[in-house]
Amino acid sequence: MEKTVISVVGPTAIGKTKLAIAIAQQYKTEIISADSRQFFKEMNIGTAVPSPEELAAAPHHFIQHKSILEPYSVGDFERDAIAKLESLFETKDIVVLVGGSGLYVDAVTKGLDHFPEVDAAIRPRLNQELATQGIAVLQNRLKELDPEYFNKVDIQNPHRLVRALEICIGTGKPYSSFLNKDKNKRPFKTITLGIEAEREMIYERINQRVDLMVDAGLIDEVKSLIENKALNALQTVGYKELFNYFEGLWQLDFAISEIKKNTRRFAKRQLTWFRRATETIWVDFDEEITVIIDKIETEIK
Question: Where is this site: Interaction with substrate tRNA (predicted)?
């Protein structure tokens, strides 16, 4: 049988963990997490890390295996995840990949784009501009240097803007000119399952999840991380809003409402990313697992 990765994707709070576990149990296999914030052991409640019961239901990898104090890039994850897949495929024909971080999912299933080395001083300068002049300055510069990428990137994501501008400035060429070139072909087949629901249902589930996080102790978790708030890992919805509360900039009720709003926006961006892949098999969030397994079996055969 051809080695196969079953990739479960979709917006936040849609039920990816539940489906991934059900599939892993069906095929007696293991799960690789591609959620870029669940990697960090200090971030538990705000990243919706699987519960102890869920972690016990199927073996998981890349859950809280790093500290926020350790640099860990998407390239590091690609290397580690591919090595883990090679190890798992020695005894299994199928492995489940699950996560809402589209770039990290693609890093495993498709490989990353490769970029030239550039002057390491460029990024700190861009980050300084971001901090002192605001995101609009970076947006306008990217629009000037690489209009093609500007038109498809999430221009509200400062990390993406800085990375693209770093390459534009360091190479004198558009960031987009390096995309989709000579990626490493994967020695496995990928079946991608996307979970979807009506927008109102997704938003309702997000609002409920945020309330549950607050009840579970999110505020205390964020308070314990204040001294590290400048770290990249903590530039995350659910954390940055509460940092504003602790700094006295916002009232608590407003901060929580902003978490809900920004999570809804994030879910919209996730769907935009995942819908670009025409080969994805979309299933309803409440689809019976037997129906989903039948669809997987059809693809495998």
Answer: 101, 123
